[in-house]
């Protein structure tokens, strides 16, 4: 019996799947909290369908129910209810990739800098039907950092949500996998004979999806996900979602990117710097004057140029050019 036949026999469960930045030692994927407190958490080296893996799990000490204080304030009755939240993460090496399957709040057990936050979107643009998007959460590129969530239970085209690809970052997507897509996941094999079945997936930093509860089936599912990321082409209608991405402040690449920006501002290195107007001015009313202050230098001009922004940053008295620009 091969892996495909075994996977067909397995049950599935909807879990959260993350792709991690690889490391020789899987324990390096664990958060500091796990490493520093070996009494509260367990770490076990295991095998999942023949793949090397690390199981991380914990049941923290119980805490007072967060609403208990309000009940006590209103009624003078202290009910003293306690809560405990069990969490687990299964970190699996599949070929050259490392994935983490999380249960409960298991994502808290993973080192944040190791999470590949492009994984969810890169998977989405390869499998989602652009005409069957059910929910979208986007973050506006503005000083207000506004987050909007829009839902259409029956699904609709992505661009019907009014997305502005250069002015908003997509943080989460929920939709249906394209019906004609050749995807060999355990859940699809079990359900494809049902009338009108469509696989619904939720995409963020990771993917919320049904995966096999059997070891061999899980190994087959992860191999199929790796194949999709490698071989499937990006849907042209979804490709604009990949043009602008947000880098977390804890991302290990942040320091290198900051140095690259400083080199560009100083006229060194390769690349160009341009002016990005706030989203609310895009195709909006005409602007006839710009007024502000950067690094102690006043800007008051009817025609804003790149030099107006970079000249104050080159002041030798400046202690932090990027901080001044922000």
UniProtKB/TrEMBL annotation:
It comes from Kibdelosporangium philippinense. The lineage of its organism: Bacteria, Bacillati, Actinomycetota, Actinomycetes, Pseudonocardiales. It holds the Pfam family DUF6119. NCBIfam families: TIGR04141 family sporadically distributed protein (TIGR04141). This is TIGR04141 family sporadically distributed protein.
